[in-house]
Specification:
Blueprint: E1 12-16, H1 23-35, E2 39-41, H2 52-62, E3 65-70, H3 78-93, E4 99-103, H4 109-113, H5 131-144, H6 153-161, H7 168-171, H8 190-203, H9 210-224, H10 229-240, H11 247-252, H12 270-274, H13 279-294, H14 301-310, H15 318-324, H16 328-342, H17 348-354, H18 373-376
Parallel strand pairs: 1-2, 1-3, 3-4
Amino acid sequence: MAKPPESTPAKRIFIGYARGDARPVAEELRAALEKAGFEAFGDPELRAGQNWTEALDFMLTHADGAVIVITPAAFTSEELLREARVLHQRASTEPDFPLIPLLAGDASLADLAVSQLRWLADFQVPTGPSTEARVADAVASLSLGRAPSATPRESAAASAAESSYMPAESAAPAAAPARPTPAELPAMSRSTSNVVSAAGSRAGNGPVDASVVLVAALHYASETSLPGVTSALLAVLADRQPGAGDPLDRLDAVPGLGPSERSAAEDLPVAELAATPPLSRLLARAADCAQRVSGDRRIHLRHLVAATVLADDPPLRPELLAELDVTAAELRQIVREAARQETSGEPQEVWDALLPAEPLHLAGGIDTDRWTRTSASR
């Protein structure tokens, strides 16, 4: 007797929205998705005692598609901005990952085209006379694997130009330079994507290099209090100079490493940041690190931090090493020891080989890897 065909698992759709005014629409969307046979991801899956960051990271990285509900609150929500960047990066690197911005409430296409989420206007936006109609269009699009009934970016800019509260000459954004091929961008965990985004904000108009990324990673470890290699590295750096104050405060005071004054609305999406040198080279090295220690090129934060201390194009800035009173070789050793304590499932001997212990010495005992406060001040 022939076996009955196995059922196909329901596709998982992540619903992103700003807390408050978008919740009723998110619930309407959830009901419509589930009625159509999808599994909806979002806040209700989080149970008491679960780690919020880990649960959200799982949903963002395991979803098969996403709908971002755009209400007026979305234009000022930092949390939604971070989620949208992760989803944008996935949609830019995974051809089969649908990402649909869903306008709701008083939010208009003109608002979206000039907001902190303006790059979502690159995607097809469902149209319709009501929120209910746009929800139905979005769900139908996901079911049929087609783009929503929508207007592309050019029309979004034109719509913005027609807005009564915005001067027409400033409505249409300037033509952006050609973007690198999205397929070349590496896959990253949400923590990694958050750090990359924070590094871009921190750098402002400057280069997003290994030093800026390392400082952003250390700040992320401090803010989230999650255990891991980066948190262990931060603890060791603080213990090395107990009377020197918080190492993060000291690094923030170094010109070029502290937060920029640029607003969040000016930040680039992660996909664009990740494709721009020198960050693109650093991420390629991080993917190589991930491949060596885990057999998978997906970058987790520990792999990114390892890449920063191995970077040579450009290497870590002398000012950063001087402020921490550490050499690049010592920094590699600290990360290696942190990996020994904090990682599991990745062979320690591979980490040992990845992060060599000894610096290069020249004749006369000169250590090419050493940079102290004294030498930095000369």
